[in-house]
Design a protein that fits this description.
Layout lengths: L1 H14 L14 H11 L11 H30 L5 H26 L1 H10 L11 H39 L16 H49 L3 H4 L10 E3 L9 E3 L2 H54 L4 H38 L10 H14 L6 E4 L1 E4 L2 H5 L1 E5 L4 E10 L2 E10 L7 E5 L6
Antiparallel strand pairs: 1-2, 3-4, 5-8, 6-7
Length: about 475
């Protein structure tokens, strides 16, 4: 049975090669802005059309671009952390630096693996991934595109809007958006202050744009995987019932194949309905193997940076909620904290939402195998269906796995607890539900910044 599924995987690969003239932007509308931002960073080269010298210059411009806007900001922030004297300033500087370091990790990962990422996107233009023209089977693709576009739009709107709000407030108070080294104060010429704050705003906006595009690209790939699993579920529900739902105009007509070995063409083989059902079931199995293989390739490729981003986002999310409850006094600070909190929530929610949809849709695919017209199948087709049911019964666990494992599900999003076993960094979060009223109890304790062991686990509380 293992050899059979390996054979199916090998058979589907040549069929799913994409055409060279197809553009990824035409497949998913949200990819237009995502790839536009990647091209702005010189991170999306066309390796097939660029000459080796042109490709080298393209990558060199990308290094210069991110050095001026990304690495320079991170270096200035790092130098600032060595000049502060108070603990509050040190905490604020470390949070900003932590965000920048995670972004640099994601950016360098993207530049290093851009060929593999482009191959994944081109893979979506394969024959079986395209729209079939059937409105019912194409509806999941339309839904996936809408959802991924909504997540990207909200994420971009809140992030860039927050950076613009920081700029306006800083200009009105003649302060910097983020305190950096060298220090800019009231003795600094105004034109120098304007240049520094303009560089900060552009750098923050570009950082946010690349971070949003990176996260939205992974979320879009997960959304499309869920959509194709939904298409597979619809196809399985119809398997063996097509002749009953849509009978042919000529019920006595049969597809025949004339043997080329018979010169007199006397032997004629009639293709029965059982053979047609067998072929349809085989195509569903091949499609299932291809979609699950695509999901496995996506998770294997992006798990490392994705895991680091989730740990960083959850940590800053807890600290932001703590500051919002204890350390925010003015309306302007409250609005900034709420918008920043929404950005973090969207960033974590899109991974967990689409991962949860994949887990649930895999179960629906398994249940759909029970609706196949089993009594009218022959023995060979029944054996194939039983083998496929055993494969789908395992389900799909969508998770980011690299040293540690985080399950991408709504359970992870609902309640997250970060537990440091060495008491170096401890952030507790819990949700208590009583008679429909929920209260968030949050405590924070910090004794240092050197994290040796951080374990993320899911705690699900239910109403009693």
């Amino acid at each position: 049975m293992v050899k059979f599924f390996r054979c199916c995987k090998a058979r589907v690969s040549p069929e799913l090669l994409s055409k060279k003239n197809e553009k990824p932007e035409a497949f998913l509308p949200s990819l237009r802005m995502i790839l536009f931002i990647f091209r702005m960073f010189y991170a999306w080269p066309d390796e097939q059309s660029l000459a080796p010298n042109a490709l080298w210059w393209y990558r060199a411009k990308g290094v210069l671009f991110r050095t001026f806007f990304i690495y320079l900001s991170a270096a200035a922030q790092l130098a600032y952390n060595f000049t502060v004297t108070s603990r509050e300033e040190l905490f604020a500087g470390m949070f900003v630096l932590l965000t920048q370091l995670v972004l640099i990790l994601k950016m360098e990962f993207f530049y290093k693996n851009v060929s593999k990422i482009q191959q994944l996107i081109r893979r979506l233009h394969g024959k079986q991934y395209r729209q079939s023209g059937n409105a019912e089977e194409d509806m999941p693709l339309v839904s996936a595109r809408k959802k991924s576009t909504i997540f990207w739009t909200l994420y971009f709107m809140f992030s860039v809007g927050l950076a613009t709000e920081w700029l306006v407030i800083s200009l009105s108070l003649t302060t910097l958006i983020v305190p950096v080294w060298p220090v800019v104060d009231h003795t600094t010429p105004y034109w120098v202050y304007l240049m520094v704050i303009l560089h900060q705003y552009v750098a923050i906006a570009l950082n946010a744009s690349f971070n949003i595009s990176w996260d939205s690209l992974v979320a879009a790939l997960l959304a499309l995987t869920n959509a194709h699993l939904h298409r597979l579920q619809i196809q399985l529900m119809k398997l063996g019932h097509r002749n009953y739902l849509h009978p042919p105009k000529d019920a006595k007509r049969r597809m025949i194949a004339v043997s080329s070995l018979d010169d007199n063409a006397r032997s004629v083989q009639i293709k029965s309905d059982a053979d047609e059902v067998y072929n349809e079931l085989l195509q569903c199995i091949i499609f299932h193997q291809e979609v699950t293989g695509f999901l496995r390739d996506v998770l294997d490729l992006f798990s490392g940076p994705l895991l680091a981003q989730l740990y960083c986002s959850v940590f800053i999310l807890c600290i932001t909620e703590f500051r919002l409850l204890t350390d925010v006094n003015t309306m302007a600070d409250t609005v900034q904290a709420v918008i920043y909190l929404l950005c973090l929530v969207i960033q974590v929610a899109q991974y967990c939402y689409f991962g949860n949809e994949i887990n649930y849709m895999a179960q629906k695919v398994h249940r759909a195998t029970a609706f196949v017209n089993y009594p009218d199948m022959n023995i060979k087709c029944r054996k194939l269906l039983i083998a496929f049911q055993q494969i789908t019964a395992v389900g799909i666990k969508c998770s980011a796995k690299y040293v540690f494992t985080i399950q991408l599900s709504m359970e992870t999003f609902v309640t997250v607890r970060i537990n440091d076993t060495q008491n170096i960094l401890l952030v507790f979060g819990s949700i208590e539900i009583d008679d429909g009223l929920s209260s968030f109890l949050f405590g924070s304790a910090m004794t240092g910044f050197e994290i040796t062991c951080v374990e993320l686990e899911v705690v699900v509380t239910s109403a009693t």
